[in-house]
# Entry
Amino acid sequence: MPSQLPLNLQLNDEATFENFCIGSNVLALSALKTFHEKKEVFIFLWGTFSVGKTHLLQACCHAYQQMNFSTIYIPFKQHEQFRPSLLNGLETLNLICLDDIDAVLRYADWEEALFHCYNQLQQQHCQLIITASKPPLYLTCQLPDLKSRLSQGLTLKLEELTDDQKLEALKIRAKNRGLILNSEAGLFLMHHYPRHMQTLFDALNHLDHVSLAEQRRLTVPFIKKVLGL
# Structure
């Protein structure tokens, strides 16, 4: 089965459309889930930290791989591990997902590589999804033509979840792991820990491992002890 190119990077198995807490992002989720059916070839997805951009990019990769399409996921926050030449030849793939493009926009070599990559993908009608923390208009690009290209796709914004939605997302994630997280314990975690969803999910992962080892339930005293709160 065609899959992601080897970059010593593994997709998160839990990053699926089914595991995504939708909140107010119904339209964005629908556009991504049906992207393979559309004539559009470029989506620009933006939102603040920890609203689910990475989750959805990897969910797209999983979905495309299940349909026997070739994909690549590149996290630009780790760009120091790669070279701009990584972007050469991507037009042979069905879906290209470039995460956190902001991280490389201050580098002339990366901007030039992105510009040429974009042009090649457009010529071959390859599907491309790019994420950033800001919409294209507010990105700082040294290369004006690149900024122009980034503004040509379907631009979608991901909204942050409300506290009630974050609590529900934590409960669902816990249930998927075979755990029970009641409202009291979930609210305690949210009120005493950074409320970014990825940080909360990381805390839940840690609690899961310890609770399994110690055969303990997710109670407030247990969460206090394990996380040092």
